[in-house]
Write a structure and sequence with these properties.
GO terms for molecular function: dihydropyrimidinase activity. The protein has 474 residues and is α/β, with parallel strands linked by helices. It has 13 helices and 19 strands. The radius of gyration is 22 Å and the shape is globular.
């Protein structure tokens, strides 16, 4: 593979913004050259890519996706092949997807199944969290093996009857992964309350998509986040609150952090851009926005945007979980509880966030939220998430001046709609390199499949565990 020289860009590095060149040799960043490589330093066979007028980022990382996932009723619309291709077209070079150990399955079996789905098919790199739906002696005994296989993050649920663990089980998971430096991602909704509210809303005659947010009010998220915070405080383990959607939920997460809990806070573009009025779209089109947690009020959107600006939100992911409107979501006509939960977004996250915050944030902030921090939280930094010599050659050359309109017609996600249809935006990848190979040019895939599995490492917790009235390290 010939060397590649990305020439004359504005480099987004840990040392700040610098003008210069990036030299890629094989699958690594070989040189970061402020003011450019000197004459004679460029390999003779190097391909040269003009990055003038562009920002050069380390590839973006989406640490919350659900590709090629079976829900019990439907497969998601995006496979690993289509989903990682779409991700790369938007500038994302690594995803971390949720492999799921369903009940009756072991974690090694689940990991093998997700490798079978992903290996050899991906444009972007991929790692796996392990979602735990059944906590028993075998699952507990298999935790060390997961770390050996490069899985250092896990997920549990407080909602969904076929997935949720109780509080004692959640505490045991936290205590079990802590010595290995693991982190637990948690879907924070009070599932018992959601079940009851769904019944009440439906029985009251509200059967359309507008029933979805009514059955999942702010309180069910905030209560679950607060509960997770106390469980994490008891264990001393690291936690990641996924897809925070409400002002009260954000307050609960930051309150735990203020008490010394090692908590990472994730949110998503949909919770900063789209509000609950979309559920009232005619002809059942509100079903396109049925995801959990649901879209919220404008006050929640404002609070989350402020949380990004204040540094309370650590990472921005997508929770990409795509289902077609026709043939999948429309199965819930007459009963909102049967609408598959989830929406697409992996392709459009970088451009949406850059446009949303263009007056308040700059390239270094976008790098922190969508590349550096996900790499740090999930055990990939500085191999990924940093434009430094020796790092993996995952690079996004971002042209901020390209103007275009988001549409289902020009997206690469394999789903029949986008929640952001008709949004006028500016900014697009000029080139995207994955492991040193040109994967995307001018927003279009080149057809290569350079994506690789990314084994990840644990990290020690920065807090201690609480036992009785004292604090001690377990």
């Amino acid at each position: 593979m010939p060397a590649k020289l990305i020439k004359g860009g504005r480099l987004v590095t840990p040392a700040g913004l610098i003008n210069g060149d990036v030299l890629i040799v094989d699958d690594k960043i070989a040189r970061i050259a402020p003011e450019g490589l000197a004459e004679g330093e460029t390999p003779r066979d190097a391909e040269v890519f003009d990055a003038s007028g562009c920002y050069v980022y380390p590839g973006f990382i989406d640490a919350h996706t659900h590709m090629q996932c079976w829900t019990g009723m439907d497969w998601t619309a995006d496979s690993f092949e289509t989903g990682t291709r779409a991700a790369a077209c938007g500038g994302t070079t690594t995803i971390v997807d949720y492999a799921t150990q369903d009940r009756g399955m072991t974690m090694p079996e689940a990991l093998a199944e997700w490798h079978k789905r992903a290996d050899g098919t991906c444009t972007a790199n991929y790692g796996f969290h392990m979602a735990i739906a059944e906590w028993n002696g075998q699952t507990k005994a298999d935790i060390p093996l997961m770390f050996e296989e490069g899985v250092s993050s896990f997920k549990t649920y407080f909602a969904y009857d076929h997935l949720k663990l109780d509080d004692a089980q959640t505490l045991d998971v936290l205590e079990t992964i802590k010595p290995y430096g693991g982190i637990l991602c948690v879907h924070c909704e009070n599932g018992t309350v959601v079940n009851e509210l769904q019944r009440r809303v439906f029985d009251a005659g509200v059967t359309g998509p507008e029933g979805h947010p009514l059955s999942r009010p702010d309180e069910v998220e905030a209560e679950a986040i607060a509960r997770l915070g106390y469980l994490a405080e008891l264990s001393g383990a690291r936690v990641n609150v996924v897809h925070v959607s409400t002002e009260e939920g954000l307050k609960a997460a930051t309150a735990a952090r203020d008490r010394g809990v090692d908590v990472a806070i994730e949110s998503c573009p949909q919770y900063m851009i789209l509000d609950e009025s979309h559920y009232l779209e005619p002809d059942f089109r509100g079903a396109k926005y049925v995801m959990s947690p649901p879209l919220r009020q404008q006050s929640d959107l404002s609070a989350l945007c402020e949380g990004v600006l204040e540094g309370d939100v650590d990472t921005i992911a997508t929770d990409h979980c795509s289902f077609n409107f026709f043939g999948q979501k429309d199965r819930g006509i007459g009963d909102f509880r049967k609408i598959p939960n989830g929406g697409p977004g992996v392709e459009h996250r970088p451009v949406l966030i850059m446009n949303l915050f263009e007056d308040e944030l700059g390239p270094e902030d976008f790098c922190r939220l969508m590349s550096e921090n996900p790499a740090r939280v999930f055990g990939m930094y500085p191999r990924k998430g940093a434009l430094v010599e020796g790092a993996d050659a995952d690079v996004c050359v971002w042209d901020p001046d390209v103007e275009w309109t988001i549409s289902m017609k020009n997206q690469h996600q394999a789903v029949d709609y986008t929640p952001y249809e008709g949004y006028d935006v500016h900014g697009q990848p000029r080139q995207v390199f994955v492991n040193g190979e040109l994967a995307v040019e001018h927003g279009e895939p080149t057809g290569t499949l350079p994506g690789r599995y990314v084994p990840r490492e644990g990290a020690p917790a920065t807090v201690t565990a609480k036992a009785g009235n004292c604090r001690c390290i377990w």
